[in-house]
Amino acid sequence: MFWSGGKDSSLALYEILINRPDLEVCYLVTTINAGFQRISMHGVREELLERQAEAIGIPLLKMHVPNIPTNDVYEQQLHLTLSSLKTEGISHVIYGDIFLEDLKQYRINILNQYGLTGIFPLWGYSTDLLICKFIDLKFRTITCCISTYHLTENWVGKEIDVQFIKNLPANVDPCGENGEFHTFCFEGPIFKSPVTFSLGEKKYVPLQIKTVEGTQETGFWYIDLM
Fold it and tell me: Are 150 and 76 members of one domain?
């Protein structure tokens, strides 16, 4: 299971554990920023990831990449990881993707090089229905990173509940599938016990993007989960 620690990974894992008794989930595979010792993009501390995996009861496999890795460097580490998994007898890889076709095809193309089969248990479902199911199942998750291209600072560090979804701007996907926000899941039916934490400081990381009008500054707000 390629595991980000967020809500989509959690719901995808739940679907596999409930509906695919023919599969044994051997590892949670997570990309770690080696420089900061945090989950890539999400910014969650490695220690919390370890506690999360322990609460789920599935071994954690870390894929370390440098800070702001090039695509080539990322793919080198990915190929090493997949090659090692294949050698161990792994046959399938699970992802929490929902509707980004290019990303899904990218994953499949790489898996094909190792004779591995991708499984996408959330694929094609309405994100409105998925987030409602997530909440109905009593999962709990908090935003650990938000994109300022889509949302403002006050959206980071918020638990996702019915009111959160109702208040989202109309152009923001309720599952954040376009990169609007990332999450850390800390309680729910896949956990033997909740993962406890406290909220630390917020940090803004700027990012320059090119548009037809020129260069525009956007960025990400992170909150340190302690």
Answer: no
The burial of 224, by beta-carbon neighbours within 10 Å (0-12 exposed, 13-18 middle, 19 or more buried), is given as middle
Report the alpha-carbon distance of residue 6 to residue 16 in Å, rounded: 16
* Boundary (domain end) residue, out of 119, 140, 175: 119
Model confidence, pTM: 0.94
Angle of helix 127-136 relative to helix 7-19, nearest 10 degrees, comes to 80
Residue ranges making up the domain that contains 165: 127-225
- Does residue 1 form part of some domain? no
Residue range 144-192, pLDDT digits in tens: 999 999 999 999 999 999 999 999 999 999 999 999 999 999 999 999 9
Please state, in angstroms and rounded to a whole number, the distance separating the CA atoms of residues 118 and 110.
10
